[in-house]
């Protein structure tokens, strides 16, 4: 009986070097088949676990992180070109941090936005040298828009 069981678990493969066949024994073949049979069940359980966290929570976190980054970018522009003081920027950042409680990466995303704001400010400085009139018009409209966006972000996330 043992010889029959061993034969059932063997396959022969021709070796490329000398043409001899060598036996390959598949140990734990039954365990392999059990795992293969359970794979769809395990996949289903994993997908259910992933779905257990509501998408609105994930969307809320992503949205809050994106808001922190956009706010950092606008704050950099406002500090550089709109005459907003560093103190006002710091106060705005702290108010926003308290409101964007879902932002898991607030500081990281704020800094990423701030760095992107550096690029925006450099482009505007270049425009200032090449076309002062267009620079003045853009700064005026951008500063008004940024002020509105900052106020809107604070009011939109104020707890009720």
From TrEMBL:
Residues that span the membrane, as ranges: 31-52
Sorted UniProt keywords: Membrane, Transmembrane, Transmembrane helix
Protein name: Lysozyme inhibitor LprI N-terminal domain-containing protein
